[in-house]
Design goal:
The complex is a heterodimer of chains A (331) and B (318).
Chain A (H helix, E strand, L loop, with lengths): L11 E12 L2 E13 L4 E5 L6 H9 L6 E9 L2 E2 L5 H11 E4 L3 H4 L6 H12 L4 H14 L18 H13 L5 E5 L7 H18 L2 E6 L2 H7 L2 E6 L2 E7 H6 L4 H8 L48 E2 L5 E2 L12
Parallel strand pairs in A: 3-8, 3-9, 6-7, 7-8
Antiparallel strand pairs in A: 1-2, 1-4, 4-5, 9-10, 10-12, 11-12
Chain B lengths: L1 H28 L4 H6 L5 H10 L6 H13 L13 H36 L4 H15 L2 H15 L15 H35 L2 H8 L4 H29 L3 H6 L5 H10 L3 H29 L1 H9 L1
C-alpha cells in the first residue's frame, strides 16, 4: 500500500462537489463541498450512515442524478471534465469508462430479459461487437467473475439466480466495456456474509488485474477497513475525515470516526456491548450552521457554533474538527 | 406453456356456469311474464296459463335449467319467443356488427391511448404531459353518448362527412361501411382511450423508476434502447390487461351507442330482449358475453405468460 499524494495526477478527481435536492418546492443542500481523488489500481472508500450523501455523490460522478437534483463542482476522469459534457457524450462515459455496480443485484437486472441479452447489449452498443463476438466475450467475462463454466446462464432469467450470482453478472456487465473506473455502491449489503467476502475479493482482484480505480461505497467501516486503500468518512453531506484506511481505523482523528469504529464488532474481542452513537443525523432542512456533528459529539468543544474546515494533519490525513483526537493531530 | 394453458382452461368452467345460474334465477325472479307480454293486456287468464305451460315456465327452476343445459348440449340455444327464430341465428346476425364496433374502437383507443401515454411518460412533467393529462381527464369524465352527440353535431350535421345514424353492411362497399361505423367507433374508442392513456402513462412512469432501468442508463445504453427494450416490455403488461377488459366490455355490446346510431348490434338486441322478457334470447346473448369475456381474459393471461418468463415458469414449477 503506497501513499498517493493528492497532488499527483489522479484517475478520478472530484472537487468542490455540492448537490441540492428539490424538496417541497425549495432547493435543500444535501452534499456540500465534497472533494476526493482516486488513483489507478486504488480502492477508495466513501463511508457513512445512510442519508449522508454518499450514493448521490456516486450518481453525480456517473451523471445519473435524479431530475430533482442539481450539482455544482467538478468531476474529472483522467483530466477530462465530465460535468460539462453533452448528454450523449456523458452516456458514453457512463457505459465505457465508468462501470457502476448497484446495491440490489436482483433488482438491477431486468426481470424478463435473459442474462445473455442483458450482458451482451452494452458491448454491442459501445464496442460495436457482433452478436457472436459479444457472446464470446461475455463467456470470458463470466469466467472472470468466477461463474462456474458448466452453468448455462445465458438463457436464464434473473429470478433463477441467487443474489451472489446476480451480483457477479452485474459486475460482468459493468466491466464488459473495459472501463477505467468502477463504482460499487454498497455492492454486498444485500448479500449473505460469506458471499459478501467473495464479491469484495472479486472486485479487488479485478481492480488489480484490470488496473482500474475503484470507488467503494459502504456504511460498514469494518468492511471498508479490510477492502480499501484510502477512505473518506462522510457525515451529514460533507467529508469529515479522509486518510489512508489503515491509519484511519487505527488512529482516527474525528470523534465521529471514533464513534463509528466503536460500533464495529471485532472477532475474538470480548466487548460488553457495541456502542451506538447517540442521537440522530440532523435533517437536511435544518442543518446547523456550525459543526454538524456537535449535537452527538462526546468531546467538549467551545468552537462548535462555527463550521470547521477540513484541515490537514500529520501523514496527509484531513479532518473536519476543532478538537481532533489522538497524537497525530496538529493544531 | 401447454400445461399452463390446460390449467387455465379447466379454471374457466366455473366462471361460465356460475354466472349462468345466477342469470337464470334472477331473470325468473324479476317481475313480468313473457307469456303475458306476448298475448297482451286483454288476453284471458286461461290463455296466459296455457302459454306459460307450453313454454315450460311453470316447471320448477332447476328442471328448467337442466332442460336449458340439455338443449345446450346439442348446440342449440332454443328459439326466441318474439322473433320466432333460433337464438343462435339471431345472435349470428347481430354479433358481427358489435364485433366490428369493438375491434374498431379497440384500435382507436389502443393507438391513441398508448401513444399519448407513452409521450406523456417519456416527457414527464413537460407541457405536453400536463396538457395530455388534462385532456384525457376530461375524456374520462365524459360519457360516450355525450361525445357521440358532439361528434354527430360537428362531423355529421355541420360538415356532413359521416351519416348521422344507420348501418351499412360491408358487402355494400367498404367505404360506406367505414363511414357508417366511424362515429360510433370514435365515440366509444376515444372515451376508452382515456383509460388506456392513464394506465400506459402510470405504468411507464413506474417502470422508468425501477433499478434495472437505472442500471441500463448506468451502462450508457442509448435512450432509444432503454425505452423500447427495457421499459416498454415491462410496462406493457398492465396496459394489455386494461385493453383486454375494455375490449371484452365492448364485445358485450354498448346498448346506448348502438341505439343512438341504430346499429343492429348485440347491445340493442339485449335491450329489446330484456324489455320483452325473451328468456331464451337473453340467456343465449349473456352466455355469449360471458364466453367472450372469459376467453379475452384467457388471451390476456397467455400474453402475460408469453411476455413474462416468471409467470410462465413460476406456475409450471409448482
Amino acid at each position: 500500500m503506497t501513499d498517493f499524494p493528492e497532488s499527483s495526477i489522479a484517475l478520478l478527481t472530484v472537487s468542490g462537489l455540492s448537490i441540492d435536492l428539490r424538496l417541497a418546492g425549495r432547493w435543500v443542500p444535501v452534499v456540500t463541498d465534497v472533494s476526493f481523488s482516486v488513483h489507478r489500481r486504488e480502492a477508495f472508500a466513501l463511508v457513512g450512515e445512510s442519508g449522508c450523501g454518499k450514493t448521490l455523490t456516486a450518481l453525480a460522478v456517473i451523471g445519473l442524478l435524479p431530475s430533482v437534483a442539481r450539482m455544482r463542482g467538478s468531476v474529472k476522469l483522467d483530466g477530462r471534465e465530465l460535468t460539462t459534457l453533452q448528454a450523449r457524450a456523458r452516456r458514453k462515459v457512463a457505459g465505457r469508462e465508468i462501470g457502476f455496480i448497484f446495491q440490489e443485484p436482483q433488482s438491477a437486472l431486468h426481470p424478463v430479459l435473459t442474462i445473455g441479452e442483458q450482458l451482451t447489449r452494452p458491448m454491442r452498443v459501445h464496442l460495436g461487437l457482433s452478436r457472436q463476438a459479444a457472446i464470446k466475450r461475455a463467456k470470458d467475462l463470466l469466467e472472470q467473475v468466477q461463474i462456474p463454466k458448466g452453468r448455462r446462464i445465458f438463457q436464464e432469467y434473473p429470478h433463477h439466480l441467487s443474489g451472489g450470482m446476480s451480483q457477479r453478472v452485474v459486475i460482468a456487465m459493468a466491466i464488459s466495456c473495459n472501463p477505467r473506473f468502477l463504482i460499487a455502491d454498497e455492492p454486498t449489503t444485500a448479500l449473505d456474509a460469506t458471499v459478501q467476502e467473495q464479491i469484495l475479493d472479486l472486485l479487488l482482484g479485478l481492480r488489480r488485474d484490470l488496473g482500474i480505480g475503484l470507488l467503494l461505497i459502504s456504511h460498514n467501516l469494518g468492511l471498508v477497513a479490510q477492502y480499501s486503500d484510502r477512505a473518506a468518512v462522510m457525515y451529514a453531506g460533507e467529508i469529515v475525515e479522509a486518510d489512508q484506511t489503515r491509519r484511519l481505523v487505527s488512529q482516527p482523528l474525528h470523534p465521529y470516526t471514533i464513534g463509528l469504529l466503536r460500533a464495529v464488532p471485532h472477532l475474538g474481542q470480548k466487548v460488553e456491548r457495541l456502542q451506538a452513537i447517540p442521537g440522530y443525523v440532523p435533517a437536511v432542512e435544518e442543518m446547523p450552521v456550525g459543526c454538524r456533528f456537535a449535537e452527538r459529539c462526546t468531546v467538549m468543544c467551545e468552537k462548535a457554533s462555527n463550521h470547521p474546515d477540513l484541515r490537514p494533519h500529520a501523514d496527509g490525513a484531513r479532518a473536519r474538527c476543532w478538537v481532533p483526537q489522538g497524537d497525530r493531530a496538529t493544531s | 406453456m401447454l400445461y399452463y394453458l390446460g390449467r387455465r382452461l379447466v379454471a374457466l368452467l366455473p366462471t361460465i356456469i356460475v354466472p349462468m345460474i345466477l342469470l337464470f334465477v334472477l331473470l325468473r325472479m324479476a317481475p313480468g311474464n313473457p307469456a303475458y307480454l306476448m298475448l297482451g293486456d286483454e288476453a284471458p287468464i286461461e290463455a296466459v296459463e296455457a302459454l306459460t305451460r307450453q313454454l315450460g315456465l311453470d316447471q320448477p327452476l332447476p328442471l328448467q335449467f337442466v332442460a336449458w343445459l340439455r338443449q345446450l348440449a346439442t348446440f342449440s340455444l332454443g328459439d326466441s319467443l318474439f322473433l320466432h327464430a333460433p337464438v343462435t341465428e339471431v345472435l349470428a346476425k347481430r354479433i358481427p356488427v358489435t364485433l366490428e364496433l369493438s375491434v374498431m374502437s379497440l384500435i382507436i383507443s389502443g393507438v391513441v391511448g398508448a401513444l399519448a401515454g407513452a409521450i406523456a411518460a417519456v416527457k414527464h412533467q413537460s407541457i405536453a404531459d400536463r396538457g395530455l393529462v388534462l385532456v384525457f381527464a376530461i375524456g374520462r369524465a365524459v360519457p360516450n353518448f355525450w361525445l357521440a352527440l358532439l361528434l354527430v353535431t360537428i362531423l355529421a350535421v355541420q360538415v356532413r362527412w359521416f351519416p348521422v345514424l344507420g348501418y351499412t353492411p360491408h358487402d355494400e362497399g367498404f367505404l360506406p361501411w367505414l363511414r357508417s361505423m366511424a362515429l360510433p367507433a370514435l365515440s366509444l374508442g376515444l372515451v376508452q382511450a382515456a383509460t388506456i392513456f392513464r394506465f400506459t402513462r402510470a405504468s411507464l412512469l413506474d417502470v422508468m423508476n425501477e433499478s434495472y432501468v437505472q442500471t441500463a442508463r448506468a451502462l450508457g445504453l442509448p435512450e432509444r434502447i432503454v425505452i423500447f427494450r427495457y421499459v416498454f416490455r415491462m410496462a406493457a403488461l398492465p396496459v394489455l390487461t386494461v385493453m383486454g377488459l375494455t375490449f371484452a366490455y365492448a364485445l358485450g355490446g354498448t346498448a346506448v351507442l348502438e341505439t343512438m346510431f341504430s346499429l343492429p348490434g348485440l347491445g340493442q338486441l339485449l335491450l329489446a330482449a330484456a324489455i320483452r322478457r325473451d328468456y331464451p334470447l337473453i340467456q343465449g346473448a349473456i352466455l355469449y358475453v360471458a364466453l367472450t369475456f372469459v376467453f379475452v381474459n384467457l388471451g390476456i393471461d397467455l400474453l402475460y405468460a408469453a411476455l413474462d418468463p416468471r409467470i410462465r415458469q413460476g406456475r409450471a414449477d409448482q
